[in-house]
Amino acid sequence: MPKAEHELGHASTIKAEALGVPGQRRFRVLIEAEGGKACAWVEKAELQELALTIQELLASEETKRQEPRGTPSPAHTQRQADLEFQVGRLALGYDQEQDWFVLDLSDQSMRRGRVLVRVFIGRALIGRFAKEATGACAAGRPLCPLCEAPLGPEQHVCPRANGHFSL
Description:
The protein is an alpha/beta fold. The chain has helices spanning 44-59, 123-138; strands at 4-19, 26-33, 36-42, 81-95, 100-107, 115-121.
């Protein structure tokens, strides 16, 4: 696992937010941990995929455990980090030994393989985050039941309903 520029340690809070009106919303992940705070701006699809992956991991047999074995002991930076950045790449891992989830976030401008922020998240906290992220993504514009395109205030011309859709 590559070393992170900012290892924030154990998260005390992780939240998913959608800001703005449907159709023009921006999404962010807010993290508070021992080593500081981070505000990571993400795309809606990234947030949805992260929430789905978390839910799948929580449901898998490999990650089911009755009690955590310990707390992570990362060598995070001495100074408190307060970061805000646009996510270019994110990765979710699971430390089976410690029963913690590990979230790595990289800035858009970083080279592949470099990690800007790493945070360790407990099972209950990451479960609540996944539900919150799913809710934030679902609260936008409803989708057309035929073509799954977002419906807005303007009239929707569905390619599947008017015969112009091709596979």
